[in-house]
Amino acid sequence: MHTSDHHVQGLDNDQVIADWPAISVADVAWLKGRYPHLAGDCEVVWHSPRPFSAAALLQSPQGRFFVKRHHHHVRSAAVLEEEHRFIAHLADAGVPVVQVLPDHARATAVEHGDWTFELHAEAPGEDVYRDVPSWTPPNDVEQAWQAGRMLATLHNAADSYHAPQRGTHVLVARDELIRAEDPIALLKTQLPQRPGLADYLAGRPWEAELQRAILPWHFGVAARLASVPHRWGHNDWHVSNLLWHQHGRANAVAAVLDFGLASPASHLFDLATAIERNAIAWLELERGGAAVRGDIALALIVGYRDARPLTAAQVHLLADLLPLVHLDFALSEVEYFHGITGSTANADVAYYTFLLGHADWFRTAHGQALLATLRAAA
Hints:
Blueprint (H helix, E strand, L loop, with lengths): L6 E3 L5 E3 L7 H8 L10 E5 L6 E7 L2 E9 L5 H16 L7 E2 L8 E3 L2 E7 L19 H18 L17 H4 L3 H8 L4 H7 L4 H8 L1 H4 L2 H5 L5 E3 L8 E6 L2 E7 L6 E3 L1 H13 L14 H14 L4 H10 L5 H15 L2 H18 L3 H12 L2
Antiparallel strand pairs: 1-2, 3-4, 4-5, 5-8, 6-8, 7-8, 9-12, 10-11
Helix pairs in contact: 3-10, 3-11, 6-13, 10-11, 10-12, 12-15, 13-14
């Protein structure tokens, strides 16, 4: 499944051969027949280094556009349109989301062979973090404050959006296992419908590993989440998924990108994910305390509170969610790597380093200090 002519960001802050071939001349030629926006001379001017799909910027006489291509085992048109409907709702509410463009048949997700395509208008603003790996903290606390405030603005708009759970587990950040009274029992019921994940876990002592690494953090959390409403969220709120207006030293969010992980979870789950994504340099934990940015975590919370209230009890629950917030998504990465790309090595990283390792890190002195910082913010 690998292709040798295109490299993307790997799981260890490195460049690796892409699982998916780059957007090609043949892709563009086919898309030109579907999208009037691409009529005339149209060429690829940049390939995205993000790993889970192929994406590129296209230049046509009508302007510049962003195309993303998914393998059909990752996203069908129906599943991709779930994201698009949420984006449309946010746009109607005034949130500065990127515009998803319809084809000549008014479809926003189109299938061709093994692939599912989507086309976006070029969003305004500067892509400050375009070449920065995931889990790299923001440049400064001002950007974190702005990111927190925009997340609250998105949540205010999402309060009035109601749609069912996503039609897939693959590369979606859900909170079902976190909300479950018994996450292991629930996961067992899911495995027959998730053969890639079931095959990876078969023969491993996964129940004992989750009992050791996850369940101590989970104790009491599900009961407290019972009164927290399900709400759609972005669920991948990192500064690299935001475009920026920069005026001297001042920053403002210009556009919100990439709703691939969006689902109905909770707004606290979304905010906890934002802290996990932005306040911990996961790929540089060897730096010790320097890899943990309590100031970034606090700036996210303060910015969020500028547009939406957070009670003391909610902030305490937010801290308790943080060691668990990756649970469902880490398992979806295992499912993706083992069941779709066929890389058991990458699935091992998702399972041991991400799923178990992140939970264990919060038991270290640096992890405990970050949780104490959040609780003090209550």
